[in-house]
Amino acid sequence: MAVTDEAILRIKEMILAGELAPGDRLPPEKELSERLGLSRSSLREAVKALEVIRVLDVRRGDGTYVTSLEPRLLLEAMSFVVDLHDDQSVLEIFAVRRILEPAASALAARNADEDDLARLREVIESVDHATDVEGLVAHDLEFHRGIADATGNSYLAGLIDSLSSHTVRARIWRGITQEDAVGRTLAEHHAILEAITTGDGELASALTVAHVSGVEQWLRSAL
Predict the structure, then answer these.
(1) Residues 176, 170, 150, 95: is their CA dihedral positive or negative?
(2) Which residue windows are coiled coil (predicted)?
(3) Tens place of pLDDT per residue across the chain (223 aa)
(4) Same domain, residue pair 91 and 49
(5) Are residues 114 and 71 in the same domain?
(6) Domain boundary residue among 35, 70, 85?
(7) What is the CATH number of the domain that holds 208?
(8) How far apart are CA 119 and CA 197, in angstroms?
């Protein structure tokens, strides 16, 4: 288990044991890291992850608090980390995406019109290296949706959109735990769009295989 995951599970145990309740302020970083037997950097990553999923509320200059959600909802929010490690079905979804999305990119390279390409450029230009994890995942979903729409096949677009909606948690977790996930994703999106723009369906397909496989490979190692 990754150190960040371990830190999150330790904090979850504190909530389960009643040591932390909704509205409680977390002990200072140094004290909490020593109490949990973790490095301060690992604890910092865990806090950042739990802030993204709305379990913790980081108030600059004040401290870090457990959100006001009732314990049941807090634990449900945290359970997605455990679910991600236990649920093999998400790997099957990525395997299907790896089949469908390269075909969609190749089809988009043949069928995309200027409006489709302008929309994809706009999606890419809406984010940069300063974008947070939630913004990156929203961008990723929109980019792949734009490619699917550009195929001109509404049924294929619907299938891809439905599959993508089931991989949001995995994408968020990758964005939190993998170094430079934002930079890597943007570079890959730029390359795919360039291939689609030049009408090179074979290259667009190959780049999309590499793009989707990268997330799938990371997920396999995480599981």
Answers:
(1) positive
(2) none
(3) 466 667 777 777 787 777 887 788 888 888 888 888 888 888 887 787 777 666 788 888 888 888 765 555 555 555 555 454 455 677 888 889 999 999 999 999 999 999 999 999 999 998 887 777 778 888 888 999 999 999 999 999 998 988 887 777 677 666 666 667 778 888 999 999 999 999 999 999 999 999 999 888 877 776 5
(4) no
(5) no
(6) 85
(7) 1.20.120.530
(8) 12
